[in-house]
Specification:
127 residues; two-stranded antiparallel sheet; mainly alpha; globular
Length: 127
């Protein structure tokens, strides 16, 4: 693994982050609850690939496992355990409620990303 700067993935990261912010600010229904989780794993994957040269399968699995870890921490009310539940940004970043549907959305997001990578890798130059 080495450091790099990949403009394609960085632009994707910015666009996905902007979309996540808009979802957080302007939606309250299933879009926020589930589509945001679908997109966040894609955002993390793009962010990793913006700055690191890493095998695609390792990045995909790493992001998925990281997402599962965060969701599991929510199950154990980690934000409360470390006494940060009074800090809104901690509640937002780590989350406060476990959901099996969130796990499903993370998984679907990674599967979608893997499919996009397989389809697009011969078509676009990402370095």
């Amino acid at each position: 693994m080495k450091f790099t700067f990949n403009k394609f993935y960085f632009i994707c990261s910015l666009l996905l982050f902007g979309t996540e912010v808009l979802i957080a600010l302007y939606t309250t229904n299933w879009i926020r609850a589930y589509f945001g989780d679908f997109l966040v794993v894609i955002l993390l994957y793009c962010l990793i690939n913006s700055f690191l040269v890493v095998r695609k399968d390792y990045a995909l699995i790493g992001v998925l496992l990281f997402s599962y870890l965060i969701e599991t921490l929510q199950y154990f009310r980690f934000v409360e355990l470390i006494s940060l539940d009074h800090i809104p940004i901690a509640n937002t970043l780590i989350g406060t409620s476990f959901s099996w549907l969130d796990m499903l959305m993370y998984t679907l997001g990674i599967i979608f990303t893997a499919m996009l990578e397989k389809i697009s890798s011969p078509l676009i130059k990402t370095t």
